[in-house]
Amino acid sequence: MTPEQREELIRLLQQDEEISPEWARILFPPEKREYELVYHGKEREEDILANTLAVPLQPVRTFGKNGVEWHNMLIFGGNLQVMKSLLELKKTGKLCNADGTPGFRLAYIDPPFATKQEFQGSEDQKAYQDKIVGAQFLEFLRKRLVMIRELLSEDGTIFVHVDWKKSHYVRVLLDDIFGEKRFVNEVIWYYTNKYKANSDSFDSFHNTLFRFAKSKRFIYEPIRIPVKVRRMQPVRAWNKELNKNEWLKGGDGKYLYQESTEKDAGDVWEIPVINPMAEERLG
Q: Range of 9's domain?
């Protein structure tokens, strides 16, 4: 705290004026890092976790058959308060995977894109507003990412769906919350059938999925996709002793090949836009 800040704080206290939240970072500075993300209204993680109120989850309707000890839930309510309630369940051992591991193994979120618009459903009913922008948007999302990080199991991962408007800010938020070393993938969701708009710039034909892990030991199952042209590829196998893939050879010392009809998916996913008239397009 600088002498000027100390004098200003004393003045505010003596005159019984309100102390703004920004003083929290001055009075209780976070751990110093090489660099950090700073913006107006940014709260300490400890305050987000402590000050968010949990709300009781009350069953309203049941669909089909549920398990005995756990029920899958479709929750209607403010997601920040709901996540605080789920965090309380995790702390008491009531939010676990089948093997007893506490927390979620996978989280996927599709937050607002800061479009400053209102959206309607397929029958013109009001769906949601997307009018939070600037630093308020960053803190709105950051609070939820902090909660999700605490809800994830130690081998859990999160996917965050964004577009070009805020993807650069969201990546920095994720680095700030999970740590740069927990970054796993930046997946490009390429729309193969989107019509080009009249524009004087390169048209946008993709969204972005950021994938971050809670720790080093996250779960990954490769996704196999068909290839357009069959091809012969060398056969590889994992060598546990050397901790790497190796090309396999036959008895004659030559490399083994096999015909390949599929491959591991990369970080560019070609997924067409859903037809506006399709039943699966809900909003």
A: 1-30
